[in-house]
Amino acid sequence: MTVLRLCLLTMRTFTVAATVLGVSVLGASSAAQELIPVSLRVDVFFYGSHVPLLAGIADGTYEKHGLKVTAQPGRGSATTLQTVANRSDDFGFADGGTLVRLASQGLKAKIIVGMLQKSPMIIMTKQSSGLRTPKDLNGKTGGFTPGSAPEMIFPALAGRTGIDLNSIKRVSADIPTRDNLFLSGKTEFSFGYTTAQLPLLQERCKCELHVIRYSDYDITALSNGIVASDALIAEKPDVVRRFAAATVESIERAVKDPAKAVDGFFQYAEGKTQVSKPVVAKQWEETIKILKTDAGKNLGYGQMVESDWKATIDLLVKYGDVPEGKVTPDAVYTNRFVTK
Q: Are 44 and 283 within 8 A, CB to CB?
């Protein structure tokens, strides 16, 4: 009798243990299944402005918000915007000016988290050239890439600073060739972004570069942010809200501890980027400086100001072939998914 009771007790114990174990395993499996898979397409190769995005994937921030995010490099903001709009990708990291131009042609998408909000557009010269101010560029030679935003908006800078556009000698080239012409001394100034070309060319040049920032001359041109299609916003607002919340949290962490965030970037991007760690760190340092505009300096990360969008659209109407009245701010951005 004692043996029988012992056997029964052992069987009951085994059953309970197995049940508990089964619940635990099923619970873990269920938790894993609850993560919603989403894709993120960035603008080009992985570089420093993507630090909070890739670090947030690596450190589990997006998973905490219920998302399993896969990030992929892109082939320019225009292509990224198109893949987001046609739902090939769920989210994108793309340029606001390019969004305005494509929206004027019918593309339906919005920036839901503003990131590069103060314009990163710059003109670079070598310190040894003595070219310090916009007026110093008069009569000089620069490399110009057709369709590139800084070159497109250059007339606006010229109009506000006294540059004589007719005196500028232009060499037309794609971006890699433009950069090489500048580094080799065949042009005296070049265009780019503080968050991209500046740290890269500084590393390659092994010289000191001087920077003329468009934003220093009251030129408002919102740049990159997180983009979602109007269709995704309408169909899956909870997913959009989760992604926006995780992105803002990741930005906050990356601003607070840049070194840790850069480590997280490389944890995800290992073998997927050729940009060096010092350059990525410098690119993120430059990105931190432009995460908010002057008008939005008291707002939380990710929030945007309508007047900044209006100024950006007006600039593109005047210089970027956007038809007047074709695009309004509410067509290209929303603060609906970021915390007030």
A: no
Q: What is the tens place of the pLDDT at every residue in 67-98? A: 999 999 999 899 999 999 999 999 999 999 99
Cβ(313)–Cβ(331) below 8 Å: no
DSSP assignment string, 44-108: SS--GGGHHHHHHHHTTHHHHTTEEEEEE--S-HHHHHHHHHTTSSSEEEEEHHHHHHHHTTT--
The pTM of this model reads 0.86
Does residue 194 surpass a pLDDT of 90? yes
pLDDT at 167 exceeding the cut of 60: yes
| DSSP type of residue 338 | S
Backbone φ, ψ for residue 106 (5° rounding): 110, -5
- Residue 243 pLDDT > 50, yes or no? yes
pLDDT tens-place string over residues 310-323: 999 999 999 988 99
Amino acid letter, residue 105: Q
CA distance 205 to 48: 19
Instruction: Check if the beta carbon of residue 194 is closer than 8 Å to that of residue 211.
Output: yes
- For the chain, give the percent of residues with pLDDT over 90: 84
CA–centroid distance for 301 within its chain: 13
CB 135 within 8 A of CB 162: yes
Is 125:212 a contact under the CB 8 Å cutoff?
yes
For residue 151, give both structure tokens. 């070159």
Q: Taking 90 as the threshold, does the pLDDT of residue 33 lie above it? A: no
Q: Are 163 and 186 in contact (CB under 8 A)?
A: no
What domains are there in the chain, each with its CATH number?
36-118+222-331 (3.40.190.10), 121-217 (3.40.190.10)
Query: If you ran DSSP here, which 8-state letter would residue 185 be given?
Result: T
